[in-house]
Amino acid sequence: MEYNSGMTQLDILLPFGLPPAELSADLLKELDLPALAALTARAKSEDSAARHQKYDDFRRALPHESWLAGQFGLESGLASNSSPPIAAALMQSMRLNVDTGTWFILQPVHIHIARDHLVLTDPRQLALAEQDARSLFDIAAPLFEEYGKRLLYGNAGTWFVHADDWAELQTSTPDAATGHNIDIWMPKGPQERDWRKLQNEVQMHWFSHSVNEKREARGMKAVNSLWLWGGPGMNSDQVARRYDKGFNLSGWMQGFSQLLPQHGTADNGAELPANLRERNLLLLSALLEPALSNDWSRWLDAMHCLEKDWFAPLLQALRIGTIDQLSFIVTDDARLSRYTTNRSSLRKFWIKPSLAPLCP
User: In the sheet where 325-331 sits, what is the strand order?
Assistant: First the structure.
């Protein structure tokens, strides 16, 4: 492997790497992560306010989503308590032509009935087949056209809608809303009634469709609604070029690859990249799905896989000088903590490796 000379920094974003406070003691007992323990325990000293940040419980994007948007200068949507304006960039990453105007991400979802409210299910659990998604899209598109909205297909789980007159809507990311009462997280703003009317119309047309009848016969969740978010668009002048390279960007966060200095240079691999540049970003999202579903046994398994595949190689890369400095940005649903380690801080042999710093 060949690496560029000079100061090489790597920011590692680890969503839901912070165990929930009420379970942290039990979960830490089950974790065997010597590399991560060394990296966090020997991180450079910072005051608590600089290292740990608390987010509003009703913010419309999760801490890791807000942090990532901020790194690319997309704070405008977040300042108004809305989801990151990533729709246009995500469309570009899918090689879709982007007309000028306001675009939103539109995702087919399952909403289930709780005792006295409606709850959004994690869209990842739908496992929607391409053919079924196309059938549902073909039903929804004409309904949107009747309201003067253009619908565009990206993939089975990700569509887009052009809606200039909805630009003032405040929307929430699906992960921020997952598992919660959707009334709190639904789009808010002058046109929210128009959105709900169109959403309800699509729901009625999908209710008894053969796609859902077949899914339910197989014990799968019905695709019974749509989730709107990710807009309005952004001005290219807003984009910050803080990273030279991005790695492992996946899902909707792949849209950030279009905001790197060389568009589309984000790599999605399962090993430490060989072409690091001066400042780099690495996303490790394996903990997202188990955490959102409160499956802490699977969360533990995913943590141990990350230790083997990523944390141990990263520690070794820091030791031998492949990387000069790395920072872990670790979150849960309301907190973000940062641990920055360089080669000199690793020499603090008197500090024993420990995962205790993950429980701020």
Answer: 52-54, 335-342, 325-331, 9-14, 279-283, 245-247
